[in-house]
């Protein structure tokens, strides 16, 4: 039995997900290569915290959180390079004698545990946390803060992105990818709600589907352009039609950029960074 299947069975036994949902997620996992927990998060059926708590309860692991708020000695951080920490979703917590306490998203990954134990000569004791906690801790303790964030920047003043899409799974996947990059996110399931949110509290960037009920993406975009408050917000179009003609039509209509479905998180992240940089310049968000 694979480690991924075992992890899924843990979630079913803990009543975090149903067997039907697990079976669907396993099929997606096979085709995408993503870890099972990430697939379930993208589907919107569990949160990072749900999976962490389920693992901790099932196997008696300790859970850890708020890693970015604590300080860690330099000699502990050197045990795991930042690239490795981000790639494997691990973070070194402390050393006691010959034991290294390690925060992990998947404490059942014996390959990671065995390799790190071999490299450091220490016994690895896993503790459970979330991918978001790991990313925040790495950016804080290895990279000196959130990506591109000016020192002392408050979360409320950070980049805010509005995602508008009537398909819940697509919307959840985009939100998860943006949150992993450290962005604040707001969501709407149709153009009418998206327009209302954008006018009430203008975001720095809008990512919108073009085909939606009540008010489609084109109607919302025209309304945004007609409003002095929202006219200058860059809008990136989402479409399942990936033909060059569709892209040209959207760009000619005035959209800042075009992203085809299905969403590729790497492409999405690069396009978002470019949109914010081109629109607002280098550095953090402008004052509101």
Automatic annotation (TrEMBL):
Per the record, the domain of life is Bacteria
Residues with PTM 4-aspartylphosphate: 209
- Gene3D superfamilies found in the cross-reference section: 1.10.40.70, 3.40.50.2300, Type II secretion system, protein E, N-terminal domain (3.30.300.160)
For this protein, the record's InterPro entries field holds: Bact_response_regulator, CheY-like_superfamily, Sig_transdc_resp-reg_receiver, T2SS_E_N_sf, T2SS_GspE_N
- Which UniProt keywords are listed? Phosphoprotein
The Response regulatory domain extends over 160-276
UniProt protein name: Two-component system response regulator
Q: Which organism is it from?
A: Desulfuromonas versatilis
């Amino acid at each position: 039995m694979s480690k991924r299947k075992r992890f899924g069975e843990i979630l079913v036994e803990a009543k975090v997900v149903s067997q039907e949902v697990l079976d669907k997620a396993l099929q997606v996992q096979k085709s995408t290569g993503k870890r099972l927990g990430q697939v379930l998060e993208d589907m919107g059926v569990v949160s990072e915290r749900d999976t962490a708590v389920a693992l901790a309860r099932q196997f008696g692991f300790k859970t850890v959180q708020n890693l970015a708020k604590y300080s860690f000695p330099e000699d502990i951080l050197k045990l795991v390079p930042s690239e490795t920490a981000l790639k494997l979703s691990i973070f070194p917590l402390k050393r006691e004698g010959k034991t290294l306490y390690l925060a992990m998203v998947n404490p059942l990954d014996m390959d990671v545990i065995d390799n790190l134990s071999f490299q450091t000569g220490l016994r690895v004791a896993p503790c459970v946390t979330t991918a978001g906690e790991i990313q925040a801790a790495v950016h804080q303790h290895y990279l000196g803060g959130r990506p591109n964030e000016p020192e002392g920047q408050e979360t409320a003043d950070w980049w805010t992105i509005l995602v508008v899409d009537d398909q819940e799974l697509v919307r959840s996947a985009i939100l998860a990818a943006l949150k992993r990059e450290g962005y604040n996110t707001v969501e709407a399931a149709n153009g009418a709600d998206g327009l209302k949110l954008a006018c009430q509290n203008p975001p720095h960037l809008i990512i919108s589907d073009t085909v939606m009920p009540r008010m489609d993406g084109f109607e919302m975009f025209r309304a945004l352009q007609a409003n002095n408050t929202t006219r200058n917000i860059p809008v990136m179009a989402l479409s399942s039609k990936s033909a060059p003609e569709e892209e040209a039509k959207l760009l000619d209509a005035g959209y800042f950029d075009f992203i085809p479905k299905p969403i590729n998180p790497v492409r999405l992240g690069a396009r978002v960074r470019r949109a914010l940089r081109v629109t607002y310049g280098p550095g953090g968000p402008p004052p509101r």
